[in-house]
């Protein structure tokens, strides 16, 4: 939004599953829903976006000689049997499960990128992004950090799936952006894990949200979703060594920045309404 006034900025609404003709120097290929709720909603469209969409963007990169950055995912490791995950680990992925449209889709996207690199000389860069959160995230995105924050602000119980002992490692959005730009501008193909190694169980995350928003925020247990990975934590040695990158913002510092943005969007711009407790559940 804040770029609309810049005369050099152009926004094009386009479905990458359809071919696209553009003249560009660099392609950050992020297209694809990334929240499990959203990518499972229309799984065939999800895998088409990852496979046909990535093929089209690689075809475009080849035609115009652009550098191509693929945002892959920690989901390529599936429910990992190695902990923490290093880039050389091949993963433990169910090819026929409800998450497969996303994790197998991204694995195929990585394959396509490497084949265009080897076969057609396209300059590719591959990032494997771990769980990321921050301001301006969709309030109803469905992922755990945004869910807990929105629920605690609205005085609704935080929904913990399963026993809450599964782990994730949460990266603040500005750290990710810095990592992606370093990767694009650097000389290394990757893949690179981009994530924050700080690992939390979902119950610990709920506790951090309580500390940040409301010590009385309640927890409600819900059945877990199918094929939910038990553990996830990036080994970021490779990104540290080759990109000189590591995240700077720990969860306890990043969460308050997200909370003040969510507070404004949920309750409106008036700071004094922040204390209003009955604006819940719309
Ligand atoms: N493509 C595109 N924009 C371009 C160049 C290609 O969308 O500027 C699409 C093209 O429609 C094709 C895909 O990218 O479906 C792969 O292109 P490539 O040239 O690698 O393969 P080919 O067209 O020879 O099968
Ligand atoms: N989760 C949860 N409550 C929610 C949403 C998610 O406990 O309201 C759990 C989910 O079961 C998973 C973890 O949080 O173990 C991360 O889920 P998310 O959808 O954020 O991303 P994922 O890492 O699974 O892609």
From TrEMBL:
A Gene Ontology molecular function term of the record: UDP-glucuronate decarboxylase activity
Cofactor(s) listed in the protein's UniProt record: NAD(+)
The protein's Enzyme Commission number: 4.1.1.35
SUPFAM superfamilies, sorted: NAD(P)-binding Rossmann-fold domains (SSF51735)
Protein keywords: Decarboxylase, Glycoprotein, Golgi apparatus, Lyase, Membrane, NAD, Signal-anchor, Transmembrane, Transmembrane helix
Membrane-traversing stretches: none
Substrates-to-products reaction catalysed: UDP-alpha-D-glucuronate + H(+) = UDP-alpha-D-xylose + CO2
The keyword Membrane is assigned to this record: yes
Localization in the cell: Golgi apparatus membrane; Golgi apparatus, Golgi stack membrane
Pfam families to which the protein is assigned, alphabetical: GDP_Man_Dehyd (PF16363)
Membrane topology of this protein: Single-pass type II membrane protein
Pathway annotation: Nucleotide-sugar biosynthesis; UDP-alpha-D-xylose biosynthesis; UDP-alpha-D-xylose from UDP-alpha-D-glucuronate: step 1/1
Ranges of residues in domain NAD(P)-binding: 23-258
GO cellular component: Golgi cisterna membrane; Golgi membrane
GO biological process: D-xylose metabolic process
Enzyme class: lyase
Functional note: Catalyzes the NAD-dependent decarboxylation of UDP-glucuronic acid to UDP-xylose. Necessary for the biosynthesis of the core tetrasaccharide in glycosaminoglycan biosynthesis.
Family to which this protein belongs: Belongs to the NAD(P)-dependent epimerase/dehydratase family. UDP-glucuronic acid decarboxylase subfamily.
PANTHER family listed in its UniProt record: UDP-GLUCURONATE DECARBOXYLASE (PTHR43078:SF48), UDP-GLUCURONIC ACID DECARBOXYLASE-RELATED (PTHR43078)
Name used for this protein in its record: UDP-glucuronic acid decarboxylase 1
Organism phylogeny: Eukaryota, Viridiplantae, Streptophyta, Embryophyta, Tracheophyta
């Amino acid at each position: 939004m804040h770029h609309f006034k810049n005369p050099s900025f152009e926004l094009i609404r386009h479905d990458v599953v359809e071919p696209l003709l553009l003249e560009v120097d660099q392609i950050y290929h992020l297209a694809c829903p990334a929240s499990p709720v959203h990518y499972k909603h229309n799984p065939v469209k999800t895998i088409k976006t990852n496979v046909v969409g990535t093929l089209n963007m690689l075809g475009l990169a080849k035609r115009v000689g652009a550098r191509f950055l693929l945002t892959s995912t920690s989901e390529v490791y599936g429910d990992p049997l190695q902990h923490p995950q290093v880039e050389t680990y091949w993963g433990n992925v169910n090819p026929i499960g409800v998450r497969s449209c996303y994790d197998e889709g991204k694995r195929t996207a990585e394959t396509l990128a490497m084949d265009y690199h080897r076969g057609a000389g396209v300059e590719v860069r591959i990032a494997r992004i771990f769980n990321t959160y921050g301001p301006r995230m969709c309030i109803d995105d469905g992922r755990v950090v945004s869910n807990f924050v929105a629920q605690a602000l609205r005085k609704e119980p935080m929904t913990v799936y399963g026993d809450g002992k599964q782990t994730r490692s949460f990266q603040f959005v500005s750290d990710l952006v810095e990592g992606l730009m370093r990767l694009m501008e650097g000389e290394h193909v990757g893949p690179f894990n981009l994530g924050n190694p700080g690992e939390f169980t979902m119950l610990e995350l709920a506790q951090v949200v309580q500390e940040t928003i409301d010590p009385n925020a309640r927890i409600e247990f819900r059945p877990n979703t199918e094929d939910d990975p038990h553990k996830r934590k990036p080994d970021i040695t490779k990104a540290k060594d080759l990109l000189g990158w590591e995240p700077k913002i720990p969860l306890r510092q990043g969460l308050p920045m997200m909370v003040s943005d969510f507070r404004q969007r949920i309750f409106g711009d008036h700071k004094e309404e922040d204390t209003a407790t009955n604006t819940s559940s719309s």
